[in-house]
Amino acid sequence: MRKTFLFLGALCAAMCAYAQSMPAEHHHHHDDADRTLGRVSFPTSCAARSQGPMEHGVALLHSFGYTQAEMQFRAIAKDDPGCAMAHWGVAMTKYQELWGEPESAALKTGEEEMAEARRLAAPPAVVTTREQAYIGALSAFFDPKDATFQQRADAYETKMNALHAAYPDDVEGAAFDALAILAAESPIDTSLSHEHEALAILIPLFEAHPDHPGLAHYIIHTCDTPALAPEGLQAAREYAKIAPASAHALHMPGHIFARLGMWQEDINSNVASVKESEKAEAAGQPGAAHQMHAKEFLIYAYLQVGQDQKAKELTYDMRSVGNRMEAMPGMDDMKHGGNRLDNEVRAVYGIEMHDWKTLAAEAPAPGSKEYLKFDTYWGQGVAAGHLKNAKLAASALTEFDKAVEALKKSPYASRISSMEVERNEMVGWQAFAENKPEEAATAMRKAADQQDKLGQGEVDIPAREMLGDLLMMEKRPGEALVEYKMALKLSLNRLNGLLSAGMAAEKDKKPEEARAFYTAAARQTDFGKTSQRTDVAHAVKMAGAAETAMNN
C-alpha cells in the first residue's frame, strides 16, 4: 500500500491516545441480535457476563477498530478484575498489524498489559491452555527489550502458527494467525509467499464462515496487490455487509475495487465509509478519522471517471478535515497524519490533472514534519520535468532527499525502500528538463521496473505510465504505446492510461487502437459530462466519430 502506512501510523497513535483519554465505563454489550460487526466466537475463562463484551471487542479488532476495542477491553478489565484476556485485548490494540510499527509508548503499554495478563493467568487461576497460548504469543511480541520490529513480528508469527496448529478449530486463532503471517512480511519481500500462506488459511475458512469479519478483511489485505486482486473480489463484495457498523469495513472493499478498475464500486464503498465516519465525528466518537483515508481513495476514483470537481473539492478540503480531527479530544497527533495525506493528495491531483504550474508552486502543509514532506517535492519534481524547469527539478530533488533522510530516523525507517521509485521518477524528470533524453528514459524505466517488482499501491500513479509520458514528449509514440499498454495491465481502467494510450496510438498511425482506447475513456467518463479536460473532450470526439462510422 504505497506510503499509506505513514498516515495510518499517525492515525493509530492518535486513536490510541483518544482511547486512553476516554473513561472505562464505555462498555458495549454484545449479543446474538447485534451482528453489525460480524459473527465471532471467542470463549474465555472470564466471568460469564464478560463473554459477550469480549466477543464484541474481538470483532472490533478484526475490523481494526482499535480505539473502540481498547475502550471495550479496559471496561471489561474494570468490571471483571480477574479477566486475564481483557488485558490481552488491550495489548492487541497496541500491535496494529499492517498499519505500521508501534511507537515506544504503545510498546510500553503492551508490555505492561501482557505482564498483568500473565499475572492473572498464573496459578491458582483457572485459565485454559488455549488462553495461555494467546497470552504467550502476544508476550513474544511485547516482552523483548531490544528487539527490532521484524524480530518481534517474527516471534509473534511463530507463536501464532503454533497456536493455530494446536487449536485448528479455533476460527479466531486461524484468522489472527493469517494476519500475523502478513504482518511479518518484510517490506522488501516481493515473493508473495506470505500472501499465499495466509490465503491457504483464510479462503477455506471464509467459505465455511461467510459472516466472519476477520476472514473477509484479511483476505482483502492479502489480495491487495495487482497479482492477487481478483482472488479478493468475493471478500470485497461481502465485507461491508458483514460489518456495516465499521467505517473501516465499508472502506476496505475499495482496495480491491481500485485494483480492478471498478471505479463506481470503489466510489460507493468510500462514500459509505465517509458517511459512517462523519456520523462518528458528529457524535464525538472514535472512528471519525477513518474518513481521511476513505477520502484519499475517493479523490483517486473520482479522477478516474472524470468527476473532476468532486475530486478537487475533496483534495482542497483535506487540510480542514485534518484540523477537525486534531481538535477532537486526545486526537492532537492527527495533525501529522493529516498533513502527510494533504501533501499526497495535492501532488496526486496535480499530476492527474496535468496542472503543472499549480503543482510546481505547492508547499508542504504548514507544520508538516520533515519526513512527511516528500510527496510535495515529488510532485514539484514531476511538474518541473513537464515545465522543462531544470532549476526547480534540482531543488525539488534536494528537498526530497532531505525528507527521506529524516524518514530514515523516524519510526517508519523500515519502509524506506518504497521511496526509491519516486526518487528515480524525479531523476528522470530532472534529466528530461536538462535535455538529456536517454538519461531520462533510463531513470524512468528503472523506476517503472522497481514499481512493478515492489507492487504498485492502490492510489499510485504508475511509473510506467510516466515513462510513456516522457517518451511521448520525446516524440516516440510507438515506444510510448508499449509502455502505456503495460501500465494498463497492472492499473486497470486508469483514465490517464487510456487517454495517453489513445493519443500514442493516434500519433503512431494506429487509428483502430486509438479509437478503442478513446472509446473506453469516453464511456468511463460518461462521455465527459462532468469533466472540463481537453484530452477527455478529444477522446469523446474520437469515440463519437468511431460509433457514427460503425452505425453507418
TrEMBL record:
Keyword flag Coiled coil: no
Secretion signal span: 1-19
InterPro entries the UniProt entry points to: TPR-like_helical_dom_sf
Keywords linked to the UniProt accession: Signal
Signal is among the record's keywords: yes
Record protein name field: Tetratricopeptide repeat protein
Organism per entry: Tunturiibacter gelidiferens
